[in-house]
C-alpha cells in the first residue's frame, strides 16, 4: 500500500482552483478568479519579442542558465522597484522565481519548522496559506480594519507568543479584501518589526494597479535592518503565463532562497526570462500598465456602483483604490458557500471567503474579482448575487 508523507494530510486543493474548473464554462459570469483580463495581454508584442530572442540568442534561450536569473532582467527589476516602490537595491539582491507563488513556497521552506508560528492578516491570501501549510506551522491571524493590520494587536501577539518565525503581509490592495495600509500603519509596523526582529514577507503583486490617491511606500523601502523580503511579479502587469516573479532580500537571506531554488527547479525558464527582458527593451511597460489600469478602474466603478444600488444594507463591502478585488461581509448567520451554490444555479460565480481565514470559522464573507468580466456582465452578475443575498435575509 502506498504511504504518503504526513504533511500531505495538511494539503487540500485550492478552493479557487476547483471553482475555476466550473467557471471555465462560457455561460458562467465569473468573479471568482484573481486573473488579469486576457484581452489586455500584449500578445503581438510578446510574439515579436519571442521572435527576436530566437533570432538573436536562440541557443541561449533553450539552454540552462544561472539560478539567480538573467542579469539584464534583474537590473530592470531593480530600476523598476526604485521607480515604483522607492526601494534601493541591487541585482545581487534579486532572485528570479517561477511567479511570486514560488517565492511564497520558498519563504515557508526557508523559515518554518513544524510548530513554528506565522502571523498574517485576517483574512489573508489563500495561496500563501496553502504554500505555508506544507511546512506545518501554526497560524495566528492579526485583526485588520480599513487601514490594514491593527498594530496594537500585532504587538500584543509578538510580546506574548513564542516561536514566531515569520510575518506575511500584503499592504497594497490586499487579496482578498482590496484594502491598503495607511502610511502610519506601515511606519508603526516597521517599528514593531525592528523591535522584535522577525522576518517579514511583503507580497506585492498588485502594487502598480492603483487607480486613485497617492502611492504608499513599500515596507521594504522603510526597512533599515534587512528584515523585509519583498515578493514582486510580472503576472498582473504583463502576463501570468510567463511565470516570472522575484524575491528581493538581504544577501544573507537571499542566499538561502537560492539554495532552495537550486533544489526545486535549478532556475526559472531561460526562454521566458529572455522574452520578458526583450519585451521591456522593445515596448513601454508603463504605457501598458496605464491601459490595464484604465480598464480595471472602469470595471471596479461599475461593480461598486451596482453593489451600492442592488445589495441590501446588511451586506457590507470594501471600496478598493486599486488591485483586483472587493470583499463582501454578510450577516453572521449567512454562509457564503451555501449562497455560492445558489449563485451558480443563476450562472454566476464568486469565491466564498471562509478559506481565507486559516483558522476557519468565518463563513459569512466572499471575494469578488472585477478585472475579468466586461461591464455589462458585471451589472448582470452583481444583480443576480444581490437577488440571492436578499432571498436569504432573515
How many strands, what sense, and barrel or not for the largest sheet? 8 strands, mixed
Cα distance, first to last residue?
Answer: 51 Å
Q: Please give the radius of gyration in angstroms.
A: 21 Å
The number of helical elements comes to 12
Helix content: 40-55%
Mean pLDDT: 95
Strand line-up of the largest beta sheet: 2-9-8-7-6-3-4-5
User: How would you sum up the global shape?
Assistant: globular
> From the helix content, strand content and strand pairing, which structural class follows?
alpha/beta
Provide the succession of SSEs. Answer: HEHHEHEHEEHEHEEEHHHEEHEEEH
Q: Hey, roughly how much beta strand do the residues contain?
A: 15-25%
Spans of at least 5 consecutive residues with low confidence: none
Report the count of strand segments: 14
Q: Which descriptors would you attach to this protein?
A:
394 residues, alpha/beta, 8-stranded mixed beta sheet, 12 helices, 43% helix, globular
Provide an overview of this structure:
The protein is an alpha/beta fold and 394 residues long. It is built from twelve helices and 14 strands. The protein has helices at 15-23, 43-61, 71-85, 99-111, 126-133, 151-160, 183-196, 251-265, 270-282, 285-310, 336-345, 375-391, and strands at 29-30, 94-98, 117-122, 138-145, 148-149, 164-169, 200-203, 228-233, 244-248, 316-317, 325-329, 348-349, 351-352, 365-369. The model has no long low-confidence stretch (mean pLDDT 95).
Q: How do the helices and strands line up, and which of them pair or pack?
A:
Blueprint lengths: L14 H9 L5 E2 L12 H19 L9 H15 L8 E5 H13 L5 E6 L3 H8 L4 E8 L2 E2 L1 H10 L3 E6 L13 H14 L3 E4 L24 E6 L10 E5 L2 H15 L4 H13 L2 H26 L5 E2 L7 E5 L6 H10 L2 E2 L1 E2 L12 E5 L5 H17 L3
Helix pairs in contact: 2-9, 4-5, 4-8, 6-7, 10-12
